[in-house]
Amino acid sequence: MSHKTESHFNNEASNTSSNPAFEQVLETRLSRRSLFRGAGLAGAAVGAASVTGCATTMGSGSATQLDRLGFKAVPKSLADKVIVPEGYTAQVIYALGDPLAAGVAPFKNDGTDTQFEQRAGDHHDGMEWFGLDAQGKPSASYNSRGILGVNHEATTDEKLASFFIHANGGTATLPRPAAEIDKELAIHGLSFVEVQTDGKRWAYKTSSPFNRRITTMTPAVVHGPARGSEHLVTKYSPDASACRGTLNNCGTGKTPWGTFVSGEENWFGYFFRDAKDDDARKKDKQVQALKRYGRNAGAASRHGWESGGTEDRFVRWNNSAIGASAKDDYRNEMNTFGYVVEVDAYDTTAPMRKRTGLGRFAHESVAFAKPVAGQPIVAYMGDDARGEYIYKFVSDAKWDPKDAQPANRLAAGDKYLDKGTLFAARFKGDGTGQWLELSMNNPQIANSSYFEFKSNADVAIFTRLAADAVGATKMDRPEWNGVHPRTGEVYFTLTNNSARTVATADAANPRVYTDMKGSKEQKGNVHGHIARLADASPAGMTFKWDIYVFGSEADADKATINLSSLTDENDMSAPDGLVFSPATGICWIQTDDGAYTDKTNCMMLAAIPGKQGDGAARTIKHGDREVTTYVGKTPTPSTLARFLVGPKDCEITGWCETPDGRAVFINIQHPGEGTKMADVTNPSKYTSQWPANAGYGAGQRPRSATIVITKNDGGVIGS
User: Fold this and answer.
1) Side-chain half-sphere exposure of 126, counting CA atoms within 13 A
2) What are the CA-CA distances from residue 449 to residues 77, 282, 452, 463 (Å)?
3) Lowest-confidence range among 9-13, 208-212, 498-502?
4) I need a surface site. Which of 94, 375, 566, 599 has the fewest CB within 10 A?
5) Parallel, antiparallel, or unpaired: how do β-strands 340-343 and 520-524 relate?
6) Residue 185's closest CA among 309, 22, 47?
7) Tens-digit pLDDT profile for residues 232-287
8) Would you place residue 18 in the very low, low, confident or very high pLDDT band (cuts 50, 70, 90)?
């Protein structure tokens, strides 16, 4: 997600439950000692925990699993261009506004373009590959033709308007013109686009029958325990079986049966609530839930879409109780967002499904454990907000290998995702953890005095409150996650935490320090880290954990900040995207940073991690307080190295590859987002002109875009 967006709409801290944070649950790893007993670090070996038989399910993989990286790390950069290692080429292939159907005019990129329902959306984010053979049939092995499923998370804005898509920057006051809002409704959502190579260059196909846009207005079907719930009743769907659109889609995943799943993240900021809405709802328990999900009465919406007129497409963004009942207004509209959505990339007619069984929160990516015949399907997820939780879903249905190539892919999704159990993670002080059941079978939920749960539909819709009720562990913005193809261990990015203090430092979040960005002080856990979980078994109820790597600047103090001893080849800040390659086993780490951008633009690194417990215990001293943590084995440039640096003001995000690992697709999100709205007609004041300055497309306004990276000798990426 955009770090500008984060400052406006993702700076959420709505978890006021009394649940313990790490500093409380991990006190067994903390000790208070005299100032005179020595300072600094103490090390002790930590035993390894092994989980066998687990792998990612994003593809069939190959025999090219790498044990070391084969490229020279690229340097940090502030240039307005994409930098990749020597011997590699990066090519722009698909950007904001590109036509997706015959008859749609080429993108002028001057703010006058229309028909965004048939163009590439904005803020390219998570992405998946769906292969096609020469006859256009689904293929798990074909490498030169495929469909990219792409999230379009948000849009670049300073105040209300998505200013780069409007000729004069748009309207920054309410009410806003309907024509502006219609553009913005269309640039959010998903796109599916066919790409192909002639053996020399890749290109997208403008009028492929597989091309498809899904926007905030696209009809969707509600599936899972929340279908029919009174809390999903709207004027659009009085029986709560349907809804419209998907919004703020961040991370993705690919199911074992070959469909695309996408997480709805910061959707709450798009809705308006009247200042007197709490009173209008009287004793409705949803008042508590609305606040828990970041929507206080009187809160302004991000874009003011509700101000566009009396038409239904605008009114639905007013989340206030203004009608006689929920069937007469959109008081429940916000409850139709916050889920994982599932789409069949190969079937352009099948409606999108909202998979409510996987819970409702600020979803990022979805990572699946390797399916094992006769065992449940297991999916891991994170809730990207401060003080939120890590989740796991375990299906009721047991895996049938025939479903890897089902006749109806979405029917397979119904089978495995509509019925199952959601769990939230509790981290313990001895380096173990427990998965806590979120269902009416758990007395802590069924008998909760914290929030009234009447059914599993309530659990699915008000998942955060269910996790509060069982005492899950508050985390520092869990973002993307991935399953290691060899060990089955799960890696979660924890981006940063400016609220971390000496008093709350703990084993899993042990660093508290001041970092200077020019003359600006940045405090807390500034650069973030990556946690690693080793489940006893994918569907099991216990796990072990440690910290794979701590983000840091290379020259930072190794005793208190640079605990992973990062160097100029691999130092980083704010890890966000994280995906394991099925072809090579490389863990690709992408940053969405605002702390280190005085020295480098955002980046992507390649990693070959070990396993949980391969490092040592480390003790950090904060005055008279010592915190012991567990750090993974120190990486070297052959196991962790910077592979790419992006243009100015961008986030690096989205990752997928061809089955042979010889082409990797990456998204460059919101280059130039630091541009002032008032400067939209003056290209000389844009903070970025990418990708136009790389020779792609008309105009000079910056555009989010997909790039493809290949090795000049035709080899496997990263080797």
Assistant:
1) 29
2) 53, 19, 7, 15
3) 9-13
4) 599
5) unpaired
6) 309
7) 999 999 999 999 999 999 999 999 999 999 999 999 999 999 999 999 998 899 99
8) low
User: What mean pLDDT comes out for the span 314-327?
Assistant: 97
Sign of CA dihedral 112, 117, 120, 124: positive
Average pLDDT over residues 335-352: 98
Mean pLDDT value of segment 188-199: 98
Closest listed residue to residue 28, CA positions, set 409, 506, 446, 382: 506
Q: Is-contact 122 672, C-beta < 8 A?
A: no
- Under 8 Å CB-to-CB from 621, ≥6 apart: which residues? 39, 40, 560
Taken in order 712, 713, 717, 719, the sign of the CA dihedral is negative
Which tokens sit at 540? 């099991």
590 SS3 class: strand
Contact 453, 446 (CB under 8 A): yes
CA distance 654 to 663: 14
- Quick check: 535 and 484 in contact, CB under 8 A? no
Query: Can you give the pLDDT at residue 19?
Result: 64
Instruction: Pick the closest to residue 123 from 193, 195, 184, 208 (CA basis).
Output: 184
From the DSSP assignment, how many helices (H) and strands (E) are in the chain? Answer: 10, 36
State the DSSP string of 201-256: -EEE-TT-TT-EEE-TTSEEEEESTTTT-GGG--SS-TTSSEEE---SEEEEEE-T
* Helix H or strand E segment including 68: none
Stretch among 44-48, 73-77, 404-408, 442-446 having the lowest mean pLDDT: 44-48
pLDDT at 34: 31
Instruction: State both tokens at 581.
Output: 């390659």
- What's the pLDDT at 603? 98
Judge whether 618 and 43 are in contact, CB under 8 Å: yes
Question: How many Cβ atoms are within 10 Å of 188's Cβ, its own excluded?
Answer: 28
Q: Decide if 236 contacts 283 (C-beta within 8 A).
A: no
Name the pLDDT band for 27 (thresholds 50, 70, 90): very low
Q: Is a pLDDT exceeding 90 seen at residue 664?
A: yes
Q: What is the CA radius of gyration of the chain?
A: 24
Q: How many CB atoms lie within 10 A of CB 242?
A: 18
CB neighbours (10 Å) of residue 694? Answer: 18
Burial of 716 (0-12, 13-18, 19+ CB in 10 A): buried
The 3-state DSSP class for residue 87 equals coil
What confidence score (pLDDT) does residue 21 get?
A: 57
Question: 420-427 and 390-398 as β-strands: parallel, antiparallel, unpaired?
Answer: antiparallel
| Dist CA 712 CA 703 (whole Å) | 26
Cα separation of 214 and 117, whole Å?
Answer: 8
Res. 11 pLDDT band, cuts 50 70 90:
low
pLDDT of 579 over the 90 cut: yes
